[in-house]
Amino acid sequence: MDAPRRVLLSWSSGKDSAWALHVLRRDPGLEVVGLLTTVNETFERVAMHAVRETLLERQAEAAGLPLWKIPLPNPCPNEIYEEIMGRVVARARDEGVQAMAFGDLFLEDIRAYRVRQLEGSGIEPLFPLWERPTDALAREMVEAGLRATLTCVDPRQLDRSFAGRTFDSALLAELPDGVDPCGENGEFHSFAHAGPMFSAPVAVETGAVLERDGFVFADLLPARAPTE
Distance (Å, rounded) from C-alpha 113 to C-alpha 100? Predict the structure, then answer.
């Protein structure tokens, strides 16, 4: 029997990445060997999701996987980004990675860009959630116990009051018409902190909610231990 293919998962810290991990782990022909995350080195947070590195590290620990944390300058022109990621792909190939997986759902331009970036590298792009109907997918995530907090909301598409809310059945029921249930059009980003892909929940609490660069961010903090 052939050994499973070694997969590196592009990890945004959000619900789609977390669910992609769950799906990949159910495939006996694949072995996820690490989580790849780019981090804004100035703010020490995951880009767009605005998740603190401390929480990212706790998340990877709960997933039982090594974290490939890639610092990016701020700002990061595309040519610099591609140069950095080219080195990451070369490292992955040298370490025996055979495929790189992404949690993209239906945006063709994003998928095409990922495919181009890996072309000729010897690493195959995988899209385990591709073209799954997002309303059914969102319900499947929630029903399986995945929980996430919305850390970033685009107020042009979704009311700012959704920032800091839990991704659950109540939230799905309240999403306005035209908003994708998984936020795939950039309506919102999230931090996954519980679900079947984790050995234990990552305890978090919501801090300040603020608006910056046209987006509304809910700052997540590691939950404090209860006092006696």
Answer: 13
pTM: 0.95
What topology is assigned to 5-126 in CATH?
Rossmann fold (3.40.50)
Torsion of CA 129, 108, 117, 56, to 10 degrees: -50
DSSP 3-state of 144: coil
Q: CB within 8 A of 206, min separation 6: which ones?
A: 149, 164, 218, 219, 220, 221
pLDDT tens across 125-149, in order?
A: 999 999 999 999 999 999 999 999 9
Burial class of residue 20 in the structure, from the number of CB atoms within 10 Å of its CB (0-12 exposed, 13-18 middle, 19+ buried): buried
CA 49 – CA 207 distance, rounded (Å): 14
Peptide bond into 75 cis (omega under 30): yes
Q: How far is CA 87 from CA 103, 160, 209, in A?
A: 22, 38, 36
In three-state form (DSSP H/G/I as H, E/B as E, the rest C), the secondary structure along 15-45 is: HHHHHHHHHHHCCCCEEEEEEEEEEECCCCE
Dihedral sign of CA atoms 140, 9, 107, 177 in order = positive
Residue 215, C-beta contacts closer than 8 angstroms, at least 6 positions apart: 152, 153, 154, 155
Cα(81)–Cα(159) distance, rounded to whole angstroms? 31
Residue ranges of the chain that CATH labels 3.40.50.620: 5-126
Sequence-distant (6+) residues with CB within 8 A of 34 are 8, 9, 65, 66, 67, 68, 97
Phi-psi region of 218 (alpha: psi -120 to 50; beta: other; left: phi over 0): beta
